[in-house]
Design brief:
This protein has helices at about 15-35, 55-65, 65-70, 100-110, 125-135, and strands at about 50-55, 75-80, 80-85, 155. The protein is mainly α. It has 2 domains: about 10-40; about 45-155, Cytochrome Bc1 Complex, Chain D, domain 2. The chain has a two-stranded parallel ribbon. β2 (about 75-80) and β3 (about 80-85) form a beta hairpin. α2 packs across α5. The radius of gyration is 17 Å and the shape is globular. The two termini are about 25 Å apart. Bound molecules: heme C.
């Protein structure tokens, strides 16, 4: 998802911004406190960060992800909405997103994907597929979040 600013100056009075802030506060106050197992960032960090293998990631993507996210990562769009988000290309998250860090993407995938079957991939598989997804082009954000970090390591670039 590649959003645009909802406001420039008057953000305190912006209805949409306030709705998002209220929702996030609700997640903290109500959801998080009543689901004590939920880690504070929503999904667990990996215990180890294996070096990702892009070629293997491509195989995993084609077998386990393309069914929903489509063969070129473009997602699935119907009735004016994405019911499966694009993972790369023009309509995907931009390069300032947390997801643009391979290790963060791997953590998300490990916990949540394939949709409804989170936890099935190994750390290695999650890292491999994250390396494959994030080698593709995506929209430019305000800064590039994929800064150097050993947890982002991928081979076969
Ligand atoms: C059955 C369909 C399905 C399959 C299979 C599937 N996904 Fe997803 N994926 C979704 C849906 C639906 C969402 C949006 C979830 C939401 O917003 O709560 C999503 C969201 C994502 C996101 C977040 C995108 C964003 O912009 O925030 C990533 C990354 C992702 N999937 C990766 C994968 C990977 C990698 C695989 C294969 C291992 C995979 N998915 C398999 C349906 C699927």
């Amino acid at each position: 998802m590649n959003g645009t600013n909802l406001c420039e100056d008057d953000c305190d009075d912006n209805k949409d911004i306030n709705a998002i802030k209220d929702y996030m506060q609700w997640l903290t106050d109500v959801y998080y406190d009543s689901h004590t197992q939920t880690p504070v960032y929503g999904f667990p960090t990996l215990t180890i960060y294996p070096v990702g293998n892009i070629a293997n990631g491509e195989k995993i993507y084609n077998q386990k992800c393309a069914f929903c996210h489509a063969d070129k990562g473009q997602g699935r769009y119907e009735n004016n909405r994405y019911f499966r988000p694009a993972l790369w290309g023009n309509d995907s998250y931009n390069n300032s997103a947390g997801m643009n860090k391979v290790y963060k993407l791997a953590e998300f995938i490990r916990a949540n994907m394939p949709y409804g079957s989170g936890g099935l991939l190994t750390n290695q598989e999650a890292k491999d597929v994250a390396c494959f997804i994030n080698k593709h082009d995506r929209p430019q954000g305000n800064f590039d979040a994929s800064h150097t970090d050993s947890r982002n390591d991928c081979q076969n670039r």
